[in-house]
Design goal:
This protein starts with a strand and ends in a 7-residue tail after the last helix. A hairpin with a 2-residue loop joins strand 17 and strand 18. Helix 24 packs antiparallel against helix 25. With 735 residues, the protein is of the alpha+beta class. The strands form 4 sheets. Strands 5, 6, 7, 8, 9, 10, 11 and 12 form an 8-stranded antiparallel sheet that branches. A 7-stranded mixed sheet has the order 13-25-24-23-14-21-22, sandwiched between helices. Among the domains are: 69 residues, 2-Layer Sandwich (Alpha-Beta Plaits); 67 residues, Calcium-transporting ATPase, cytoplasmic transduction domain A; 117 residues, 3-Layer(aba) Sandwich (Rossmann fold); 116 residues, Calcium-transporting ATPase, cytoplasmic domain N (3-Layer(aba) Sandwich), CATH 3.40.1110.10.
């Protein structure tokens, strides 16, 4: 299966996106299609043996829309001066039309040559010409409505189109009756209804477009954060180039006050860089030779040269934008419910409108009342607000999360995070910084401490566990050489093995002794080191323990505060670690975690998560993103505390690029507020239709309450604006 993301033009409401989604999913060769109204794109998984991009774009065209090719960037379309002028002109024409058609009804001064009583022909022709202008202005609505009706996916445009055509047709019919001599029929013209309905629909979409663009601004800021040009060094000569001209391996220069152009590694110099847009860390970070740099970072004070490693779509910024867009292209369960309702809603409204029309004819109310009620029902019931209720809130929340250094990969996470009642934390690198240092060592060998640590550090330099970094740092600080290691092997959850000068060394936790049936004669020493909060590393040579090394860590800032808040909110917190029980208990006691599961390997972690889920717990697992990937994948929500450069290879559902556990509280808060906001939106959308459809039918006419198509179209606009304003409130959530 292959996946493609296409930009779609012509979608104006949720019924449009739902209709296109249904039509695409019906086609042979397409396994799954998801259409995003707010982002105006479609993500399609298809069998490349049966289909290609060209054929899929034909399907899009058949459904009444246009493919603009692969989705490459988020576009915020600024309304051009020409469009604004056009809108102003039609606003003036709408006022003129209303004045001509209805001014005399409210005793406004009439224009003599357009008086319906004395100059009937002029009056009718002026209304017809003005209405034709509006028909041209809203032709896209009528065209889309017709196409969707033909493809059996009727949408909002179908409702409006049927209403406009019915109103226009009836008015032209009466116009011919007037020409035949029956001048009384001049009062039965509804040209203004057809025209003003189109005007209000266009007004609503104009406002809606501006609102949807604002929800994309946070994401677009990320796209624009990298500089347009950069300086590269070729044979010692500096040359200014565009970002597109930079290739992997090029040497790029960044001076004080300049931005980093692409992701890379420093090869010369030292500087302080501002990476707050990725990590959320407000203080500049010191960077030197060997350190990674992220595109968009600001060089505060130094001169550095760095080798380009990840460019274009591979860069961290592009990866973040991709993740946010993909998340908005997934659908939360609550959104699927709204889509399903919206899909049945349009055909139901058409049926109600037809029944209303027929009933009025059967009870003798006359064709005029029947057609007016028919058009009013179609217009007032447009499900635009219903369709905006969920996607708009989700996209606003996605942007909010991104701006607070929380990358959510699936929109369903925003719905489900508020259900979490159990959070499982890995210890090293999650509850702690993972910046370990050697604190104590008990040396049982005939080597001195430095010689032994050089051997251990050389083997640990081949591994990936955070504990190994403590030994490598020791070697670097003492300016020692890393020895050559042969036959290196990583034993997940236990430790590592390596040979130096043909002598085999085994390094790991107490479990590695059990695995290789090595007698542990140093349990008391282990307990003493563990009581001081150390993680214990056993060093083994020739089946004998030659050293015990205590490595300790610093608890991550704000961790105790986070655990206290979670406990107060009755969310159970659990520490899950491969470390020994004594070390885990000391750290857990300091931060307030009461349940500890220690001495577990990665595969066991995943099993424990599954067991917790069987107890009807909704489990969030928070780990380091790579070592804990089995457990992260097993949890209902996997959250990784990760650096920005690890984003592309992360396997979790949520990435906290700020490396701050307080972001978990923010995620849960945003989730709760988002679901509440969506429910409010859905309530008002349903309430509006439940309230307005009976009025449009005319059930309240006996008590003097009724509406016409113009008022119906205006009411529909207000219902959409209500949803837009309510969803926009999510931007104001205080963290």
């Amino acid at each position: 299966m292959k996946k493609i993301n296409l930009s779609i033009d012509g979608m104006t409401c949720s019924a449009c996106s739902n209709g296109l989604e249904k039509y695409l999913n019906k086609q042979k060769g397409i396994s799954n299609a998801t259409v995003n109204l707010v982002m105006a794109n479609a993500t399609i998984e298809y069998d490349e043996k049966l289909l290609n991009q060209e054929k899929i774009e034909e399907f899009v065209k058949e459904a009444g829309f246009k493919s603009l090719g692969e989705f490459k960037e988020i576009k915020i379309e600024e309304k051009s001066k020409k469009e604004k002028i056009k809108f102003i002109i039609f606003s003036i024409l709408a006022i003129v039309l209303m004045y001509i058609s209805m001014g005399h009804m409210v005793n406004l001064p009439t224009i003599p040559f357009l008086d319906p009583h004395t100059n009937t022909i002029n009056y009718m022709i002026s209304l017809l010409l003005l209405t034709i202008c509006f028909i041209i202005y809203g032709f896209d609505i009528l065209k889309n409505g017709y196409k969707n009706l033909i493809h059996k996916t009727p949408n909002m445009d179908t409702l409006v189109g049927i209403g406009v055509v019915a109103s226009l047709g009836y008015s032209i019919y009466n116009m011919f009756i007037v020409f035949s001599g029956n001048h009384h029929q001049v009062m039965n013209l509804y040209f203004e209804s057809a025209a003003i309905v189109i005007y209000f629909i266009k007004l609503g979409r104009y406002i809606d477009g501006i609102s949807k663009d604002k929800t994309k601004e946070a994401i677009q800021k990320l796209v624009k954060i990298t500089p347009n040009k950069a300086v590269i060094k070729i044979d010692g000569i500096e040359k200014t180039v565009t970002l597109d001209e930079i290739h992997k391996g090029d040497i790029v220069v960044a001076k004080a006050g300049e931005k980093i152009a692409v992701d890379g590694e420093i090869i010369t110099g030292k500087a302080h860089l501002d990476e707050s847009f990725i990590t959320g860390e407000s203080k500049p970070v010191s960077k030197e030779v060997g350190d990674k740099v992220i595109a968009g970072s600001m060089n505060y004070d130094g001169y550095i040269e760095y080798k380009a490693e990840r460019i274009g779509k591979e860069s961290t910024i592009s990866e973040i934008v991709r993740l946010v867009i993909e998340a908005s292209n997934t659908k939360a369960p609550i959104a699927k419910i709204a889509d399903k309702v919206s899909g049945y809603f349009v055909p139901s409204v058409i049926a109600i409108a037809i029944i209303t029309f027929l009933v009025y004819l059967l009870i003798g109310q006359g064709f005029e009342t029947a057609i007016t009620s028919f058009v009013t029902v179609l217009v007032v019931a447009c499900p635009c607000s219903l369709g905006l209720a969920t996607p708009l809130a989700i996209v606003v929340s996605e942007g909010l999360c991104a701006s607070h250094s929380i990358l959510v990969k699936k929109s369903e996470i925003l719905e489900n995070a508020q259900k979490v009642n159990t959070i499982v934390f890995d210890k090293t690198g999650t509850l702690t910084y993972g910046k370990l240092k050697i604190a104590e060592m008990l040396n049982y060998s005939n080597m001195n401490d430095k010689e032994l640590l050089q051997l251990i550090g050389s083997i640990e330099s081949k591994g990936t566990h955070p504990i190994g970094k403590a030994f490598v740092d020791y070697i670097e600080q003492n300016k020692m050489q890393i020895l050559e290691v042969q036959e290196f092997e990583n034993i997940a959850g236990y430790g590592i093995i390596g040979k130096i000068e043909n002598e085999e060394f085994i390094l790991g936790n107490a479990k590695i002794l059990e695995k290789y049936e090595i007698e542990n004669k140093h349990l008391e020493d282990e307990k003493k080191l563990a009581k001081n909060g150390n993680s214990i590393i056993y060093a083994v040579k020739d089946k004998e323990v030659i050293a015990l090394i205590g490595v300790n860590d610093i608890v991550r800032e704000g961790t105790k505060e986070v655990i206290d808040i979670l406990n107060k909110n009755k969310i159970q917190t659990i520490m899950l670690t491969g470390d020994n029980k004594e070390t885990a208990e000391k750290i857990a006691k300091d931060i307030g975690i009461t349940k500890i599961i220690s001495n577990v390997i990665p595969s066991e972690k995943a099993k424990i998560i599954k067991d917790l889920k069987k107890e009807n717990r909704y489990v969030m697992m928070c780990g380091d993103g790579i070592n804990d990937s089995p457990a992260l994948a097993s949890a209902d929500i996997g959250v990784s505390v990760n650096s920005g450069t690890d984003i592309a290879m992360d396997s979790s559902d949520v990435i906290l690029t700020k490396n701050d556990l307080r972001s978990i509280l923010n995620l849960i808060k945003i989730s709760k507020k988002t679901i509440r906001n969506i429910k409010q939106n859905l309530f008002w959308a349903f309430f509006y239709n439940i309230l307005m459809i009976p009025i449009a039918i005319g059930l309240l006419r006996p008590i003097g309450i009724s509406i016409n198509p113009m008022i119906a179209s205006l009411a529909m606009v207000f219902s959409s604006i209500t949803v837009i304003l309510n969803a926009s409130r999510l931007k104001n959530i205080k963290m």
